[in-house]
Amino acid sequence: MTVKPGGLTETPGSATNATSAPMSLDAAQPLHDALERLRLKGAIFLRAEYTEAWALGGLGGPAIADLLHPGADRLIFFDVVASGRCWESLADGERHWASAGDVIVLPYGDEHMIGGAEPTEPVPITSVLPPPPWERLPIVRHGQGGSRTDVVCGFLHSDDVLFDPALRALPPLFVVRPPGGPAARWVEANISFALERSGERGLASTRLPELLLLEILRLHLSTAPAADRGWLAALRDPVLAPALARLHAEPARRWSMTELAAAAAVSRSALDSRFRQLLGISPIRYLTDWRMHIAQEMLATTETTVAAVARRVGYESEEAFSRAFKRFHGCAPSVWRNSLFSI
Description:
Elements: E1 2-3, E2 9-10, H1 25-36, E3 41-51, E4 55-59, H2 61-68, E5 76-83, E6 85-89, E7 95-99, E8 103-106, E9 112-115, E10 123-124, E11 139-143, E12 148-157, E13 174-176, H3 182-197, H4 208-221, H5 231-234, H6 240-249, H7 257-264, H8 268-278, H9 283-301, H10 306-312, H11 318-329, H12 333-340
Parallel strand pairs: 3-11, 4-10
Antiparallel strand pairs: 1-2, 3-12, 4-9, 5-8, 5-12, 6-7, 6-9, 8-13
Helix pairs in contact: 1-4, 6-7, 10-11
């Protein structure tokens, strides 16, 4: 029996070091079909024009959710950067950067801040956003007149388990960079349409925000562990859901099969069997893949050091993390990160 980083154990012969690869069209079909069944409602698009220096606070949370969608205690937020560059951060203060064409997603609508490249104190969003009701959707304008960043802000409501904050199936904040080709062109076309139609009452009732979010989720989840083997179904499974919730909430913890099995109220063998049956991989492989999924997003969109990323995803040393990352991506994390900005 081999002890793996994080404390979980597995029997010899299990595939733990297989290199991740993009899903084929056929393999991606289950994910596509599952996302098509998501029920999203109450879509709103707002346009924001920011000029350096600028920063806003007080975004997200129940109060803003109720303001934009009366009666809702949380919304799905996503910001599409049409031009310029900006960051968003949660209460931990870690800034996730995005540039033109990138999409920032907050699936649980947590309280957050947004700002530009130049340092300045944030002001409350309520000080620049006129209170509803609105005859026309307002354009948010804020800043001190410097270089400009345009953002299309989307808001949606959903009761689907994917957006349940108790399960935390998604990172609370993540950035998606559509790859070049049809996906990037499709996102760009929708950004242009939203900018041209901003302020129109009818834009809030179209399916454009819903379709755009579904495409962004598809791109993000295409790299999630076992997304092509029923991952969204696993989130609804009475055995796997509580175990996945624990792993998602504390990916850096040194988990044991006994703890996970207790969370699912089943035996260790039953939990292992269910993971393999529904997801096609063992619990340790899932945890390792999930850690790499989180690490990849952090390396791509934050300035967090490789050593700090390693600790955040459960590795006691940068060297151990680098070896694990290299098995998945074919190169060291620092090399992988540098390659993103060398194009």
